What does this fold into?
Amino acid sequence: TKLQTITVMSRRILVGCKRVIDYAVKIRVKPDKTGVVTDGVKHSMNPFDEIALEEAIRLKEKKIASEILVVSCGPTQCQETLRTALAMGADRGIHVEVPYPEYEGLQPLAVARILQRLSEREKVDIVILGKQAIDDDANQTGQILSGMLDWPIGTFASKVEVVEDKVNVTREVDDGIENIRINIPCVITADLRLNEPRYATLPNIMKAKKKKLDVCKPGDLGVDITPRLKVVSVVEPPVRQAGKKVEDVASLFAALKKEGHF
Amino acid sequence: MNFLKLSRFCFFPLTSYTRNSFRSLTTLLCVDHTDGRVNESTSHTLAASLNIGGSVVCLVAGENVKNVNLVAQSISKFAGVSEVLVATSALYKYPLVEPITDLIVSLQKKYVFSHICMSASSFGKTLIPRVAGKLDVAPITEIVGVESPETFIRTIFASNAISTVTSNDFLKLFTVRSTAFTTAIQLNNSAPIQLIESVNHFQVSEWMSHTLSLSERPELSSAKIVISGGRGLKSGENFAMLYSLAA
It folds into this structure.
């Protein structure tokens, strides 16, 4: 009889889930120019983080990963974000508690340091993050983390394929698509086209209530979250000038020429 | 004499300036280049760097000696460039961030730049924050304005708000949104070109292939004219009007 060997890779994946103002909300800049209004505004999981999590879940379904750990840094409400992640299919959640007003000063460098300590402590093999958060649009955390851990990185991933101890990452770059192969352990940041995230079903939402959600503080991980960048002001962009309508293409050229555009 | 060495001997009058003012400002600009040509994004990034007010040192890293030298010659002509550092190695053949991170970290130890920047190209956006992680510095990404050597302007919430931030870190690491700055000018400058050693790097990444999205149209960030359509066009068929206008 033929002996069938089934190799189950026990990779552990860490996924960061940031709670951000919902993408559909029209944001309002505070009159005192200190920031954007967040009180009473609808929040949800950063869309790129949902995509990152979906990819991790698919890797688990393919038996490439055995455990998905989700992490969120911020006030108590982050636990709702983690519960959603657990309902989608993550195994364990860690809430790194940063209450207001300190949370307003929490920046990617500090978050990356927190994720570094957790990745080391939990013996993580692959970190998958969203490419950027839709609030600060920083596009930094994954890259900073890969520098801190000295791991390779595949940013703007539109396809992820694990082959033995490496990952083939297809990336969306300025002039097209690039394919790289990086060693595990590694960091990957998810771009829009990587996948379409699933909705958490009601049975899974109920099951998620029993999953483990640990709470800790940045200090427990030896991380100083003092902000390095000071926000001097947050203002609205200059008011858009009203457009002008023209009858046809010839009039368009004439108008552009008159205004000295060419 | 090497300008960098000269600048350390500059005398600053004793006043109540902050610590930052006592250091001379030198920005390391990592050049985006393709096939022996300086990418347009680099020219705009140079313009942004000149706004900082210090000297600008350009880094050109690559594998093909001929191409790298062409790029170095070209960038050395730009006004405001004080020196060009050239690193040629098989390590820098492909646009992989890991080997270049080690190179920049080593250069920072040697030269102690006040600023390090690159354009917000796919490569720059990946490289600069990774260097920041190694050096424990908060990067400032996709700046659209420079207010001072410490203060930068960037957009947030998909450009629905504009944020001005100040960094008190010893080193400022930033990427530049090219479209927000004019181009730097090539004049009769001829900055000295210095060959530097590549830095040992244990390979953890491999470049496999690249598929260019072929289009007769220019790439978005380097296009001179951009036209777009939206709901006003009312239907998919009407988008043909845009294509005929673009032609």
Summary: The mean pLDDT of chain A is 94. Chain A touches chain B through 58 residues (CB under 8 Å). The CA atoms of residues 9 and 164 of chain A lie 9 Å apart. The longest helix of chain A spans residues 47-61.
